[in-house]
Structures are given as C-alpha cells and as structure tokens.
Write a structure and sequence with these properties.
Layout: H1 6-13, E1 19-22, E2 33-36, E3 49-52, H2 62-70, E4 75-79, H3 85-91, E5 94-98, H4 104-115, H5 127-141, E6 145-148, E7 154-157, H6 167-175, H7 182-193, E8 198-200, E9 210-217, E10 220-228, H8 237-275, H9 280-287, E11 293-300, H10 309-328, E12 333-336, E13 339-345, H11 355-372, E14 376-380, H12 390-403, E15 410-412, H13 417-431, H14 433-436, H15 439-450, H16 454-463, H17 468-475, H18 479-493, H19 500-512
Parallel strand pairs: 2-3, 3-4, 4-5, 14-15
Antiparallel strand pairs: 1-5, 6-7, 6-10, 8-9, 9-10, 11-13, 11-14, 12-13
Length: 521
C-alpha cells in the first residue's frame, strides 16, 4: 500500500480545516500518523509523524519544532496562524495550523482518518469494519443493530444469531434502505436533534421499539446507529451504543477520506493520461480503462452568465460522473480548466458507430442544463484503439468544443470534421510566414483601398465550384458582373486563376485566414 504523503493529506483535509505554512521537504514526504504532544514525557522518535502541539501556544512552539526535527517527525500542527515559520524552514519540518477554537481531539480524529485512508488502488470502503462494529454493538447492547448514513441507507447490519427482528428491519436490509413513512420522518427528526441515545417506540403493532444514536464528528451528522429493543437489552446498552457511535464516526470519516483520496489520485492520473505525460498502459490499468475508447468533453456555455462558474463546473463534474457510472460502472472523469472530461469505452459491435456515445452526451447535456440552469456543450473525440491514444482523442474533443454553438450543442469529431480541420489549418497557417503570405493579402488590400468586392466575389466563385452562374447567385448579381470582377481582380492583384494550385491556395487562405465563405457573404 502506498504511504500517505503530506500532499495527499492536504488534498483530503486542506483548506480552512488545515493550513500549510511551510513544507521545506516538499509535499511528497510521508505522513505515517498524527500524535498528541504530552509535555510530561520526552518526545519519542516517530519518523513521518505529525505532532499536534497540545498545550503549546503557536508563537512559543519554536523549541517544539526543533525537538520534532530531532525526532525525525514530518511536521508540527499548531493552533493559530502565528507559528514559527522561519524556524520550521531552518529545521526542515513542515508547519501546519488549525483554527484557534479547534478541539485537539477532533483535529486528531480528522487527521488520523485521512492518514489511515487507503490509496486509489484499494477497493476497501470501510464497510467490512462497519459490519464488525455492528456485530460488536449488537453483542454488547443485546439487540440487532444497523448503521445508516444520513439518507437512511443501511451501510451495515449485525448478524448475531437469536436476536429478535421485525418486518421493518427485514425490508430495510433487503433493499439496504429504511422504508419511508411519515412516522419514520418524525423519528429521524427527533434523533438528529438529540445528543445522546434515544428510545423510540415501535412504528406499527407488529414492530419493535428502537434505541438509536446519531453519529457525528465535528458537528457534522454522518449517520445513525439503531438497536432493536426486543425486551432483553443490556443494562448498559446506552453506553455501549454511545461508544459504538463514536467508533462509527471514525470509520465513516476514514471511509470518506479514502474515497476523497482515491478520487484525487484517480483525477491526477487521468489528467496525466489525457496530457500524454504518463506511461499510458500503467495509468490505464490503475484507472480500469482498457481497449478502444474515446474522450468526451463537457463545458458550460461561455456565453451564459454563471455567477459562480467554478462551483457550477464542479456540479457539472458530479452530473457527468453520475451518468457515466450509471452507464458503465466505475468511471474515469476529471475537471481540467473548466472542462469535464470522461473516458467512454468503445461501443458494442451491434451499436451504430458513435451513436450510443452521442445519445449519452445528449442526455448529460439535457440533465446538466436542467439541473444547473446553464446551457452545456458536449464534444466527442475520435475512438482510439487503446489508452495510449486518449491524448489525441482529447485534442479532437477540445477542437470540437470550439465549433459548437446553440444550434449544435453536441457533436462528434466525425460530424464536424471539415470545420475543425479548417480551424486547425487557420492556426497552423497563421503561425507560419510562408503559409500566410501570398496573393490573398493583395486582394484584401485592393478591396480596402478601392472599395471593391473582389475577395467576396472570389470566395463565392470558389464556393460555387468555379461556376460563374453559381457565384453570381451567391452574390445576387448578373453572371457578367461576376465575370468582369474576376477579370479585373487578375489584372489589379496579380492573381492567376488559371493555375489550379494558386486557386487552391487562395481558397484556403481566404477561408481560414480571412474567414470568408460564400454562404455568409
């Protein structure tokens, strides 16, 4: 298992909860545990540990920083922002801080949970520990036990034989969801307002009463623990339940930290895969990406007014991830520079090329637009044979995004290939002197100086397939007028329209560099 690093820890609990002031050894140093400082005993040698400066004022923690360095600790956490930054730098120790009013036991619980979280490659969600805890509470309290999240989803339940259960428990375990009812809602309202174990009556004539306790950490409600009272609860059942709820808080925090850490590491790995800056086979294996695939890109409409664009983009990421996971299971999605990218596995053999992906993109655009109240665009890159080509598929998707509009909010690269090709040509030609030079500049200069419409006439003629009648129709003039203009153009601008190579070059330059088209003339 990969060791937790200082950077990993900050990714999970950084920000207002934990502020970094200096990290002389960088963010890659390992963090093995969080320990509470006890001034009554010598500081043990704990390489990789974070020392919580309990009982020491931040401004007076210089000696503690020196002692931490001598003991090989990774860093020191003080309470307040006025810690000894320069001394920490000098001794190569990271200095972090928490709020002045933070309770040390809560800080310790939070950091221990994050440090103990599993890395991205792990599939451990903490549910095994929760089931073991449910059995322990059931055995100690004397009643069948269930552990739930705040949405009344059952996360774990006891399997101690011989303990009475009722139909509500059977139905809840069967669907892993507490059956909804008005009476249930009222019981949860009372429970989440309590700060101790609460005895609740049966909800039906055949049901059994419960002993319940909310699960909290730092003021946040993480769930609840329920024990069925079949008439034989232990005398200290309330104490057992309270202790069990405290342990459940630690396990739920650890599971959440593991998910957040896994998500961050997966996002970073996918970013590097899409950038082409990592070993593609290794990254793809860790992300669960295999075989042919394509990149889909989703973005908020830049023309729309979005008060909090960053937060809205994160909500878009959630919508895309949810829809992709519903379709494909475990899925790779990431938010980069305001664009949400998702890797979509290649469609099945009986599915029309790209249509399944397009329908999914259309569905996501519709759902996201409705949920976020902002128009969303979606672009699909080319299907590539293996993960090594995903960087190219992403580049395709980025180009497609640039040609989308309200009339075309979703498109695959194949559907807009001419438009993205001309867009890319315009960039390449604009960057190269030899490609941007030529007669097209003389044509535009003559029009500017003499008020003529030779460039417009020329591009209409090209777009009409060099047919004089077709060009005249686009220009809304007589064919003789069009013929006269082209003759004058060759004379005044030195253009040889009999040369097919010059005609091709003029068409490319006027279309890409000047942006002229017969359709919009």
């Amino acid at each position: 298992m990969d060791a937790c690093t200082l950077g990993d820890l900050l990714d999970v609990v950084g920000g207002p909860a934990l502020c970094l002031h200096t990290a002389p050894a960088g963010h890659a140093v390992p963090v093995t545990e969080a320990v509470l400082y006890d001034g009554r005993v010598p500081l043990p040698r704990l390489p990789g540990a974070l020392l919580l400066a309990v009982g020491v004022r931040a401004a007076e923690s210089g000696p503690l920083v020196r002692a931490a360095a001598e003991a090989g600790l990774t860093g020191v956490v003080v309470r307040g922002a006025d810690g000894p930054v320069e001394e920490a730098k000098a001794h190569g120790v990271a200095l972090l801080s928490v709020a002045e009013d933070a309770a040390w036991h809560q800080v310790h619980l939070l950091l221990a949970s994050a440090i103990g979280a599993r890395p991205a490659a792990s599939t451990d969600t903490g549910l095994g520990d929760l089931f073991a805890l449910a059995d322990a509470i059931a055995a100690g309290a004397g009643g069948a036990t269930a552990i739930e999240d705040p949405r009344q989803r059952i996360l774990a339940y006891s399997t101690v034989p011989g303990q009475p259960v009722d139909e509500d428990r059977r139905q809840g375990i069967l669907g892993l969801q507490v059956p909804a009812s008005a009476e249930n809602t009222e019981q949860y309202r009372r429970l989440f307002a309590a700060d101790r174990p609460l005895r609740l009556p049966a909800l039906s004539g055949s049901g059994l009463p419960r002993l319940a306790m909310p699960v909290r950490a730092g003021g946040e409600t993480l769930g609840s623990v329920w024990v069925i009272d079949g008439g034989s609860l232990a005398a200290d059942a309330e104490d057992t339940l309270a202790q069990g709820a405290s342990t459940a808080a630690l396990l739920l925090l650890r599971a959440r930290a593991a998910r957040e850490l896994a998500r961050h590491r997966g996002s970073d790995l996918l970013r590097r895969l899409l950038d082409g800056t990592t070993d593609a086979p290794t990254a793809a294996e860790r992300l669960g990406v295999a075989g042919p695939a394509r990149v889909a890109a989703f973005v908020l409409d830049s023309a729309a007014s979005v008060p909090d664009a960053e937060r809205t983009a994160l909500r878009l990421l959630d919508v895309v991830r949810l829809q992709c996971e519903a379709r494909y299971g475990r899925h790779a999605c990431v938010l980069l520079d305001g664009v949400v990218y998702a890797v979509l596995p290649a469609p099945g053999a009986r599915e029309p090329r790209g249509q399944g992906h397009r329908r999914l993109a259309e569905d996501i655009v519709g759902r996201a637009g409705q949920a976020l109240r902002v128009p969303v665009r979606a672009a699909l890159g080319e299907v590539v044979p293996d993960p090594g080509g995903l960087a190219d598929s992403r580049a395709d998707a980025d180009l497609v995004l640039r040609v989308l509009d309200a009339g075309l909010p979703v498109a695959t690269v194949d559907e807009v290939r001419p438009r993205v090709t001309l867009l890319r040509l315009s960039e390449v030609m604009g960057e190269r002197r030899e490609l941007s030079a030529g007669a097209w500049r003389r044509v535009l200069a003559y029009d500017t100086g003499h008020g003529t419409e030779y460039a417009r006439t020329l591009i209409c003629w090209f777009d009409a397939g060099c047919d004089m009648a077709g060009a005249a129709k686009l220009l809304a003039v007589h064919p003789n007028t069009c013929r006269y203009r082209l003759k004058q153009l060759q004379q005044h601008a030195g253009v040889d329209l009999d040369d097919p190579d010059e005609r091709l070059m003029l068409w490319l330059q006027l279309r890409t560099l000047a942006g002229l088209t017969g359709a919009t003339a």
